[in-house]
Amino acid sequence: MIFTVDVGNTNIVTGVFDNDEKLVFTARMATQSSKTADEYAIDFKNILGLYDVDTKGFDGAIISTVVPSLMPVLKEAIKKLLKCRVIVVSSGIKTGLNIKIDDPAILGADLVCGAVGAMAKYPLPLIVFDMGTATTISAIDRNGCFLGGTIFPGVKVSLKALSSGTAQLPDINTELNGMSVIGKNSADSMKSGIVFGTACMVDGMIERYKEEIGSDATVVATGGIAPTIVAHCKNDIIIDETLLTDGLLIIYKKNSPEK
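RE: above sequence
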């Protein structure tokens, strides 16, 4: 079995693939930089137990993180719990991705995993949205080259900034379903701006990206908030909740010796 760990600024997504490379489960937990390796080992053990997965029998694990300080902690936690080799998605690792940005070494591990997963599953060219703490867009051309992308504040970050940076707008919860375009109160108006405004931005960016990489580009979205936003977009967008997890498995296989 293979254990995958995708660390975002807000959540850690874990996954387990069985010996037939079938995804057994994915699970989310809060990202907490203050936790020790022992605490994360306990968390991972509890998650595996929740899905009736034994800690024995793991061939390896792979970690991708946008929180560098957690890398050694999580690596130690996995080695303690699963006693297997741990691969880290970092500069120099084999990905099969032809990265065309100014400095390929600085490309975020999350963008690498998303691009690798998307290329394995969908026709080129590709526009990949990852809607998390930050919302990112990745462009992959029809030759499989990663051209670059866009980064802007995520939905919940924008909502927090709006309430904290104004004197009269409330600090509302981030439950974003069931609103209309024309809000009848401050909270609903804020939600309308965030959700419909982001959906319009997504649609607009898709059109601009297609002008650059081709009108036949496949559009894929992942991340916790993606279903809420995509539901209000006018473009055809594939929601893929396991995109990064699938990418992690592919990268693991590329960096593992043949049995």
